[in-house]
Specification:
Blueprint: H1 2-16, H2 27-39, E1 44-48, E2 57-64, E3 73-74, E4 82-88, E5 90-96, E6 102-109, E7 116-119, E8 124-129, E9 134-141, E10 151-152, H3 164-174
Antiparallel strand pairs: 1-2, 2-9, 3-10, 4-7, 4-9, 5-6, 5-8
Length: 180
């Protein structure tokens, strides 16, 4: 299964570099990425549609499982906006001020009429998966550079450290976004 996924990813990369055909995003397309997220140590997996990291527009599936932790961060220097459009499941999107206080939040869930959220540059934010198999189509300005893509919040636990799960649970409870 893992080898098939990587083979599909490589085929996708080479085939879609000069994209001239429609990419159909359906359950069959998404399922292998969800399966990878479920077995990933980080409990999430991206599938990039942009063929190169220096593309000016980064487009990807972001498959998220409950208990994945995305440390609150912002995109500045260079400034980038970011949008999440829900495809499956249920996720909580949270914005914070520079001191870590929640300033805005929304629950993205099919059937509720709220399907997406766009985050402005220089705004701390995070996304929390509330259902297994949650998938968002994520779009943000490129290029992607791991050295300066995200400015992580010093007031939140770092990914992989103790307290990440408790921090997320407090946010979910505080915002009354109780997972199913």
């Amino acid at each position: 299964m893992i080898c098939n996924f990587f083979l599909q990813t490589l085929q996708h990369y080479f085939f879609h570099q000069n994209q001239e055909t429609m990419i159909i995003i359906n359950d069959a397309f998404i399922r292998p990425v969800i399966d990878q997220a479920k077995t990933s140590l980080r409990r999430r997996m991206n599938y990039n549609f942009h063929p190169q990291l220096d593309d000016p527009l980064q487009r990807m599936l972001n498959c998220l499982e409950p208990n994945t932790y995305i440390q609150p961060h912002k995109h500045e220097n260079p400034d980038k906006c970011e949008a999440f459009i829900l495809l499956k499941g249920k996720v909580l999107v949270v914005e914070f001020d520079n001191d870590g206080r929640v300033t805005s939040h929304t629950l993205l869930e099919a059937g509720t009429g709220t399907y997406g959220a766009e985050i402005a540059p220089r705004v701390f934010h995070c996304i929390i998966a509330l259902e297994p198999g949650s998938v968002v189509y994520e779009v943000k300005n490129g290029p992607y550079s791991p050295l300066d893509d995200k400015n992580f919040a010093s007031w939140a636990p770092k990914e992989g450290t103790e307290g990440c799960q408790a921090y997320q649970e407090r946010l979910v409870k505080q915002l009354k976004a109780i997972p199913v």
